[in-house]
Amino acid sequence: MARILAVLFFALAALRAYFDWQLANLNETVFAFLPVGQVWFNFDKNSLQLIQAVVERYLTPIIWESLIRPMTFMSMAPLLFGIGVFFAGIAIWRGVRKAMRS
Fold it and tell me: What's the pTM?
């Protein structure tokens, strides 16, 4: 399962990087990765506001302010790539553990 998730996140990172590159070419600007919050806002701004309200009301505002909000300022493609590396590491670690048992 971790291997599948790693491949999925690597593919999503590559796709997001491609879209960011195309956007830079279209606007004739310097290439830059879009942050997570901008992509989310462009996709569905109402859900971004809804998640904020739900987290702050039913969980705690600290989670929104210290965890989720800072993530919205991170570049999306490198973040997806990092998540892919994390799952690839888990898959490798599980494979090594399984090989050591045999």
Answer: 0.84
Domain total in the chain: 2
The helix/strand count (H/E) of the chain reads as: 5, 0
Judged by DSSP in three states, 73 sits in coil
From the list 43, 27, 46, 25, the residue with the least C-alpha distance to 35 is: 43
Kindly report, residue by residue over 4-42, the tens digit of the pLDDT. 999 999 999 999 999 999 999 999 999 999 999 999 999
**Helix ranges (DSSP H) in 1-102:** 2-27, 36-54, 61-63, 69-72, 76-101
Does residue 102 form part of some domain?
no
The boundaries of the domain holding residue 52 are 35-74
